[in-house]
Amino acid sequence: MPACGAAALAGEREPPYTDGALRTAPNVFGRRQRSAGPNEPDAAEAARRRSLKPLRRLLPFVLRYPWRLTFTLLFLLVAAIASLGIPAIAGRVIDQGFIAQNLEMVASYGWLIISIAAVMAAASAARFYFVSLLGERVLTDLRRAVFEHLLTLDATFFDTHRVGELTSRLNGDVATIRGAIGSSLSMILRGIVTMTGAVIMMFLTSPFLAMGVVVVAPSLIIPVILLARRLRRMSRRTQDALAEMSAMATEALGATKTIKSFVQEPVQGQLYSQRAEESYVAEVTRLGARAGLMGGIMFMVTTALVVLIWWGAKSVFDGAVTAGELAQFIIYALMATNALTALSELAGTLASVAGATERLIEILDTKSTIEAPANPLPLPVPPRGTVEFRHADFAYRTRDDDRVLTDLSFSVAKGETVALVGASGAGKSTVFSLVQRFYDVTAGAILVDGIDVRQVRPAELRKRFAYVEQEPTIFAGTIAENIRFGRPDATDAEVEAASRAALVHDFVVALENGYQSLVGERGVMLSGGQKQRLAIARALLKDAPILLLDEATSALDAQSEQLVQTALERLMEGRTTLVIAHRLATIRDADRILVLEKGRLIDQGTHDALVAKGGRYAELAKLQFRGELAQAG
Ligand SMILES: Nc1ncnc2c1ncn2[C@@H]1O[C@H](COP(=O)(O)OP(=O)(O)OP(=O)(O)O)[C@@H](O)[C@H]1O
């Protein structure tokens, strides 16, 4: 019995994804990149790994379910008391039954043991059930809380964290905690109660033998604990290697087309096999050490047991204890050893659970810098549909010194179509992010419908915009779900009306499942033009007063282009439109063109006026619309 816990003492069984592994995961170039954000200072990392403090943060989640917790503790106590009662009766069986040769006594004690065993079994099963129930509940709540919180975080957070890392926190870290709470916690709780109980019973049974054990035990336990700690460090290295391998695979498998197109399969294969080898070596080293430790423990425990039996037998012969008391004592000693092995496992498991919890809590503790003001102002109803930038300066927090927008001032009146034009990196997309308050300006102000965007609830503000991205985001779901994205309660008739206006209806009805057809991940089953029209239908259905349109740069064929253009014209009707323009047609139809250069507004006016002026815009237009100008001219 003591040897069976040797593996646990040896510190095996750490769930995957321990601390820090994912933060240094390599990319497809085989280079490690840290994605730690402003909330994750590196220096404290090592100290935090050892700390069990984060576990306290799980407490509020657990205390939400007082009944489940009470039942868990109740059944835990009942099972422990019952299991501690059995050896005491076994001792009596030996003294009053075997030695006194009284078979009746053996039988009646036998019945008693069976009854207690029944209680113990039922209470253990109930304890396991309730602790698992509690664990699953806590994890589900935690996972939901983290996901919901992630959605509230600002764009800067997502600029500094890799999506892969965040999803592995949601999956890997939660799985780590589940593994621990689901089974280990149950074992651990039992271990604590049993060990305490068994030691007390050892003293009650024979203080003399118990004192002997207390003196000798530390010399056995301390080296084992030290070795086990070393083994845990090795185990962490193994998991780091494993996490690196899987992070690399995830990135590579998500980019198979790029890899194939650049004929990088052999290089990627080689990089992966390097990781696999590293992982293999780390694991084999760990297994070797573990095997040695297990063997050592087994030998030590068996030797200790033999010594205890010899010394116990001597005490029986000397008349210091009875044979029954000795048997009883040995059983308690074995129970205590077993419980100790479970507890030594606790240290390893708790450390990794603490690490996993910490990473999840870290997300929960991250505050969004974009928050609703304490006393938000309402936006005017009906909407005015105006936008104004007042001396706006902006720098991304990740690149503090690089000013992206400088003293930008312009205003867009209701129903006006204003085109933003400028070289790549001039700050056009940044204007779109700021007006929707994904980031805050560093100086100046942005007003929508006459009100500073920082004074209204972000959700209210964003309802005023329909945003059509350059590469529309299509979710893996049905066409209807994608169109309804901004208004899940829209009726079928409304969806169809928007689809007809956006020229989506005709191609949808030709599909076998119509609006219920699945579009695949990122809309892979749709053509570029279809995706754009779907995004336009979605924006139409949202029916917001201000349209933010980032025109697609990728060329569509003439017919598809015409369809998208028609759909766009319908979407722009009656709305204020800010458009990042890449097409001459859009530019010509715009009421005004804003020319941005390095984040400054250097000119504005109509296309003809700006061309006639012959400044920067004329040059830019010549470059950007070269083909179209040639055709037009
Ligand atoms: N999330 C971000 N974090 C840090 N810097 C950023 C971020 N997004 C953009 N930038 C930087 O801000 C500057 C302006 O970028 P922006 O995307 O607004 O330009 P753009 O005019 O829209 O360019 P393009 O036409 O190529 O899309 C660039 O120098 C860019 O590198």
From TrEMBL:
Keywords, comma-separated and alphabetical: ATP-binding, Membrane, Nucleotide-binding, Transmembrane, Transmembrane helix
BP terms from Gene Ontology: oligopeptide export from mitochondrion
Transmembrane segments: 65-89, 109-134, 187-204, 210-228, 293-313
Database matches in SUPFAM superfamilies: ABC transporter transmembrane region, P-loop containing nucleoside triphosphate hydrolases
Subcellular location: Cell membrane
Gene Ontology MF, one: ATP hydrolysis activity
Membrane topology category: Multi-pass membrane protein
InterPro entries for this protein: AAA+_ATPase (IPR003593), ABC1_TM_dom (IPR011527), ABC1_TM_sf (IPR036640), ABC_transporter-like_ATP-bd (IPR003439), ABC_transporter-like_CS (IPR017871), P-loop_NTPase (IPR027417), Type_1_exporter (IPR039421)
Residue span, ABC transporter domain: 389-623
Gene Ontology CC entries for this record: plasma membrane
Primary location: membrane
Pfam families with a match to the protein in the record: ABC_membrane (PF00664), ABC_tran (PF00005)
Annotated ABC transmembrane type-1 domain residues: 71-352
Superkingdom of source: Bacteria
Region annotation (Disordered) ranges: 1-22
Function: Part of an ABC transporter complex. Transmembrane domains (TMD) form a pore in the inner membrane and the ATP-binding domain (NBD) is responsible for energy generation.
Family statement drawn from the similarity comment of this UniProt entry: Belongs to the ABC transporter superfamily.
Protein name as catalogued: ATP-binding cassette, subfamily B
